[in-house]
User: Fold Dienelactone hydrolase from Microterricola gilva.
Amino acid sequence: MTPHGPPSATVDGWTRSPFTGAGITHDCFEKGSGPGVVLIPEIPGITPEVLGLAEHLVGQGFTVVVPSPFGEPGRAASTGYVLPVVARLCVSAEFRAFALDSKRPVTAYLRAVAADLAARTPGAGVGVIGMCFSGGFALATAVDESVLAAVASQPSAPFPIGARRRADPGMSAAEFDRVAERAASGELCAIGLRFSQDMASPVARFRTLKDRLGDAFEVITLDSSAGNPTGFRPRAHSVLTTELRETPGHPALLARERVVEFLRRRLGG
Assistant:
């Protein structure tokens, strides 16, 4: 971690092994002990900043599994790295980056990861955190009863081109019905995070989710408007990674603290 940058880490000390579920195989990285949390990386993959968040969760007493469905684990983000990853995601049937009302195959894989982790960690279930392109995957994974807590940070899929995609919840209607049913019964709670000016994670999507999930869906919005007191850029996007600073009172740091508190309350530990 640089003195004025976001927390970061390397893959050193993480156990890497392939995991197969729903006919899909990806490597997963695991570390820690205690209740389970599945951390789904953001574009372009498991960057040093994603690992910084993962290490923080391990330090807070969780067993963390980080699947690697895209990108090169441990590689820092750059324009030359991000663009080919985005190009692959745009054409991949596993992710269906532009599809409306879509059941994405990758979420079936993530449910299998969550169920496996829940079966071998303490507590009645696990938490799932998705970020950026994977933000909505956390909620779609919560169709599975093993998921008790979902965190959707700046959910950006489907890519928000046009009004319908901006309002799309990032899952199929059947999945959304099941998530709403679990939320209404108290089986599931969720948090959504975004920056106020983030066009990649549109407010219309949060409105769709809030309208269906009600009080079970807590929305945290960080001010990135012009002249905001923290100095966030208007294009600020990654709440829990790139934009976070280990400075007391920093809004993204407070958001991360809230996420940890939420996971503890839902999962124990």
